[in-house]
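Example for reference:
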Amino acid sequence: MAKIMIVEDEPSLNELIRRNLALVGHESTCIHDGRLALEEARREPPDLMILDVMLPGMSGFDILDRLVKDSHSRIPVIFLTARDKLADRIKGLESGADDYIVKPFETLELLARVEAVLRRTRKHTRSFVLDEAEIDMEGRKALYRNAPVELAPKEFELLEVLILNRNLALSRDKLLELAWGYEYEGDMRTVDVHIQKLRKKLGWEDRIQTVYKLGYRLEAGK
């Protein structure tokens, strides 16, 4: 779990991001004003900031500039903005941001970007425990009842997708895209076969739930 500060002046979008981050296990603080965000980040630095560019009080660019100049600890930042011009993206990345996402965006894209930044900055543990299964994400190893579980490469990649997007319903198409890649042209039943294997190997028969006429969801609680 990571502590994430969401700085977005649109309340509905701020809350939507918070809820989706909570579903995958992160704790978020929602802030709607630029100056307040700077004060809070200085007072208690988060593991990651999701930072809108256009904000009341102070722009996201100015916030990051201040943090870079006066912060003893580097705070990873993902800019979130409707400004999609190349010059704006270059400015955002050159200012020290770790990533730059343009609105509108898909929830899964945001979660993937968050995970990638946290992985690079190593601000959260890369292990996952659910019931009697323990997954070492960095070592690509799995244990069930303290015994090693043999997982094929694609089984582990599918498992990682389910864990990173836990509590979210994912279609078979999306699972194929995320675990096998855009260019995969195999049978969609491949997903079903791999899901059945993961359920059996990890004792997750009741955890990996079938979502009717869609796909699957790893039910992991909060």
Summary: The longest helix spans residues 107-121. The two ends are 11 Å apart (CA to CA). The domain at 127-218 is CATH 1.10.10.10 (Arc Repressor Mutant, subunit A). The chain has eight helices and twelve strands.
